[in-house]
Amino acid sequence: MMSLDSDIEAQVEVHRTAIEDLSKKYELDVHTHLHDIALQLRVQNYRRPVARLLPELLAEIFYQYVVTVWNAEEPNACFKLSHVCHYWRAVILQLPTLWRFMTFPMAQLVPTMLARSQRLPIEMKVARMDASKDLPKFTAALKDNSYRICDLEMRLTLRRIRKLHKPHTRFCHTSATSSPHSERPSRL
């Protein structure tokens, strides 16, 4: 009986090893095929007319787009452009001027944008921020780079401004609207 159990265990171990080897081989095959597909897609992208534009021209187009959508408060235009194709990503990663336009509350993106904007001055818009819970995230994200802010636009409702604690209210001039849809600012 003992020899039968050990024979079965030995066969199970042989089959387990064979299955593991096949699994590794198939994983490698899948990875190789996915890599080949990615290369073919890249070659197809290079054949498109937009891929033949000079990087300088693309840089100007990207700059105009990023500034336009940033003014419309689209928080991650650079990230969207950098995910279109390999060529666009290579171009946009070489343009620190595009990464200097930031929108908060996209706090998780701020460290990446700060790094990609290198040491350039940054312009930031803060909208829809809950002062009591988002202010710590905001200050943490900019802790070592606050000196780089050359333009800061904050849109907070009066209710949210009142939630600010005294140490955070060092404003030279503060105005707020009584509701998010009101157009006439009220002086605080």
Automatic annotation (TrEMBL):
It comes from the Eukaryota. This is F-box domain-containing protein. The lineage of its organism: Eukaryota, Fungi, Dikarya, Basidiomycota, Agaricomycotina.
